[in-house]
Amino acid sequence: MPFLERGGRIVGMTYGKGDDDILRGAGLRDGADGYDVTGATLAIAIPADPLAKGVPLEYEGTNGSTDFWSIPDDATVVVWDPYDEAPVVFRWETRGGTVAMLGFHCYGASDATARLLANALGVTVPISKDTVFREVGSEEIERLLTELGLSFQIGTDAYGDPLWKVVFEGIEFVLYVDDAVDDAPGRYRDLQLYARWLTGGAVPCEVTNDWNRLMRGSRAYVDEEGDAVLAADLYLRGGVTWETMRQFIERFEGAMASFLNHILAE
């Protein structure tokens, strides 16, 4: 098929043998969807797959959801029904292009199906202020920093986890991640902000202690090299909103300026 051979992408949403119509009509293969899985608990089979970015590890099948009774041998199953491991969403690299088949239709929708469709189409889904995050990955973090108008460089820490070096009004700070999700590589439940000033022992511990006594929402200390450090943590495990993460970073930006004035005044 010339469209696929040029690196094209076919995205199909199916319910009621839509897979059969789309793929057979395109001359790719015969196939059909299988059983109705509306209301079933569906699960991400490969959390690191591009189609699964930002999708909960489990979600409820929306009205008009189906599994597939057969898929190509070389296709990648991204979502399945864990009851019988029947594929619900699969990705198929073929003839130089990509076919993504989504086992749901427009009868019902959820944040999970919207994200799956957006990932398949390669578009960005608006994040609702009410969306609750219990873990995040690089995509959300970089989107958050971009929304805040911050420039950043991506690196890795001593453990191989990603970090982001951010500059705000001439002051550099680092965003670290921690508490990795065991069954979702690249997803984390803890964000830490860290800023360091090379003071070489010029700031006494009493000064950072005064900061900790007077201020809230961050902690300050003098590290082993005698440099002044300001840090803050946000734990996501219990659930936070997008706005909570935005304010976490914005508060730290304000705290950095205040902390610098605090140590310079001594």
Describe this structure in words.
The protein has two domains: 2-121, 3-Layer(aba) Sandwich (Rossmann fold); 132-264, Yope Regulator, Chain: A (2-Layer Sandwich). The protein is 25% helix and 33% strand. The chain is built from six helices and 16 strands. The protein has helices at residues 2-5, 18-25, 111-121, 138-147, 205-214, 242-264; strands at residues 9-13, 33-36, 41-44, 58-60, 66-68, 76-81, 86-94, 97-102, 132-133, 151-156, 162-168, 171-180, 188-197, 219-222, 228-235, 240-241. It has a six-stranded mixed β-sheet, with helices on both faces. Strands 10-11-12-13-15-14 form a six-stranded antiparallel β-sheet. The longest helix has 23 residues, at 242-264. It is elongated, with a radius of gyration of 24 Å.
Strands ordered across the widest β-sheet:
1-8-7-6-3-4
Mean pLDDT: 89
Total beta strand runs: 16
- Uncertain stretches: none
Count helical runs: 6
Distance, first to last CA: 72 Å
Describe the sheet with the most strands.
6 strands, mixed
What is the CATH C level class of the largest domain, in words?
Alpha Beta
Beta-strand content bin = 25-35%
Helix content range of the residues, please? 10-25%
